[in-house]
Amino acid sequence: MNLNTMxxxxxxxxxxxxxxxxxxxxxxxxxxxPLGGMPSFVKGVSVIRDAPIPVVDLGAVLGLEDDxxxxxxxxxxxxxxxxxxxxxxxxxxxxxxxxxxDVFPPLLGESNADKVALLGALQGELLLVLxxxxxxxxxxxxxxxxxxxxx
Length: 151
Known about the structure:
By secondary structure, the chain is mainly beta. It has helices at 58-61, 138-150, and strands at 3-11, 14-19, 23-27, 42-48, 51-57, 72-78, 81-87, 89-97, 102-103, 116-122, 125-130.
């Protein structure tokens, strides 16, 4: 058995998990400065702890479309960078046996294969274990960096 501590949240109706070591903090949504030329899942930039942090709608990143209004932000480490994930709710911290989960099966869509590390069930509900470092494509980070240097 390989137990990992995860933060569980909801992106739309999906149950998602992030390794707790990637999570910096949770908070209510903060004021957003929209950015032009970004994909629809990048909602803008918020100032968090005196630093401009991109805010990404996790449900939209996962291809879950509807008019949900995220109620929480999760600031997470995405490699050397930080990103704020807009989610509908934060459920809490749980210990998950990752050996009971499967590598992301291709039948659920190649577009999300790099964002989801493992797939399984938790108390009878589909659980997506996310790769925080892959939620924002490198091209978006480059565009954000260009936008910051021009400001």
